[in-house]
Amino acid sequence: MTRPRTLGELKAAGYRPRSVKDELRANVIARLRAGGPLFPGIVGYEHTVEPQIVNALLSRHDFILLGLRGQAKTRLLRSLVQFLDEWVPALEGCPLNSDPFHPLSHHARVLVETKGDAAPVVWLHRDARYQEKLATPDVTIADLIGDIDPIKAATLRLDYSDERVIHYGIVPRTNRGIFAINELPDLQPRIQVGLLNILEEKDFQIRGFPVRMPLDIAMVFSANPEDYTNRGNIITPLRDRINSQIITHYPLTREQGMAITAQEAWAERDAGVEVRVPQFMRELIEEVAIQARKSEYVDQNSGVSARLPIALLENVVSNAERRGVATGEAVVWTRVCDLQHAVSAVSGKVELVLEGEQEGALAVARALLGRGVKALFAQRFPDAFKPKRSGRRAAGAEAGEEALASNEYRPILEWFAGGHHVELSDDLPQAEYAKRLAQVAGLRDLAARYLEPAGPEEHAVAMELVLEGLHQSSMLSRERTDMAVTSYKDMFKSMLSGLGD
């Protein structure tokens, strides 16, 4: 279908203009009627954040997303583009994307007055109608709203009050579109004041010259609660003009977090080595982020981004890929020991409180990895430290269950108590890695019973997880002879050895 190219053709086609907020509202209603996901690629907000955004759009509100880092605020704002019409007409050459039926700039008005129905029309794609600005302390009114161009004024012999000498900023140039400001509190208060009239009265001032211009813009914002105290604030009049404040959050369940990580992480590589990640390893990686969000060493006001498990999974996959390239294996499985060389993904993603700074970023990161293992082990395996019950309830089925729980690990612990140890490293070939783990009595059966590995290679990883879980539960000793080799030993003998030293 050929689109109209002039104002006259547009009139003949029966085109009816509408405001951008009416456009968003109508398209949201159409999507609701059609069914299906409103925000594809956004996981975990279906029953919390998304309904509030839809309500704000239906109410024709400007709104702000308030949440900690790594909560998909910017992605949500960018996804609003899908609710715009795919193409809209605008007068050719107008810097403000003027509606052909309502010319806004001087250029647009002159064009319609001189050419009438022959005024040329261009079509704007919806992607070009979304603009955003990251708020920083050095952002100026000229950047956002515009400034007077003295050279143009002198060349054209025009007064500074003439709108033709204005060099428009990014906000007016987004007319008939969506404009987003990220990290709003970082914007200086005097710059925030400049946005007040745009939101309500639709006019603005440039260097003291008032410009009455009915801009048609949907304004959206994002902010981090931490910024309210650390770097700035949102002035009260501006907050009052932002109609809806929507609170975002981290994944509510581990499954939601795993879905986000699987969607965003770059795990399919092209180096000729296929890297496979067992399901329980994905659970472990996500559990590290969950434990970080509970840790007393981490500043919870800053938050722990969803990027942490994404980066951690990518580093674990990379370590396995490196091993595969070095050993010449075409298919490799990620291991628990791969986490030790992926620790950089954790240490750079958390803000520490004073106690955490005293411990050191690397020590805290390793502690979080250990807590993740311990939490997953406690969820998947029986508790070896169940207290013994007394009285009549100590007999019968319950006593039998307690005995079973406490005896699950006895063959493994007795094997280590006999003076044996296991040395593992992330560069061992798969066959040698599995061989060393298989010699531990009872380990294979325990891993198979509670982790249900899909194959022998995954079974070996499950056995290593059991050993690390026992260590994190203070039932086995673990020593590192160097950064690459981990040795699991009997806890009691290691303690005696330490006393002897």
Largest beta sheet: strand ordering: 4-7-10-1-11
Count of DSSP-assigned helices: 23
CATH architecture of the largest domain: 3-Layer(aba) Sandwich
Low-confidence segments, given as residue ranges, are 387-405
- Going by helix content, strand content and strand pairing, the class is alpha/beta
Q: What name does the CATH topology of the largest domain carry?
A: Rossmann fold
Radius of gyration: 31 Å
Which term fits the overall shape?
elongated
- Main sheet overview: 5 strands, parallel
Helix percentage:
40-55%
Strand content of the residues, in percent? 5-15%
Q: Averaged pLDDT, please? A: 89
- What is the count of distinct domains? 3
Give the strand tally.
16
CATH class of the largest domain: Alpha Beta
Task: State the separation between the terminal residues, measured CA to CA.
Answer: 86 Å
Relevant CATH superfamily of the largest domain: P-loop containing nucleotide triphosphate hydrolases
What report would you give on this structure?
This is Magnesium chelatase. One of its GO terms (molecular function) is protein kinase activity. InterPro entries: P-loop_NTPase (IPR027417). It comes from Eiseniibacteriota bacterium. The chain has 501 residues and is an alpha/beta fold. The protein has 3 domains: 7-247, P-loop containing nucleotide triphosphate hydrolases (Rossmann fold); 250-380, Helicase, Ruva Protein, domain 3, CATH 1.10.8; 384-501, Arc Repressor Mutant, subunit A (Orthogonal Bundle), CATH 1.10.10. Helix content is 45%, strand content 14%. The strands form 6 sheets. Strands 4-7-10-1-11 form a 5-stranded parallel beta sheet. Strands 14-16-15 form a 3-stranded antiparallel beta sheet. It has a two-stranded antiparallel sheet with strand order 2-3. The longest helix is centred in the middle third of the chain and has 21 residues, at 307-327. The chain is elongated.
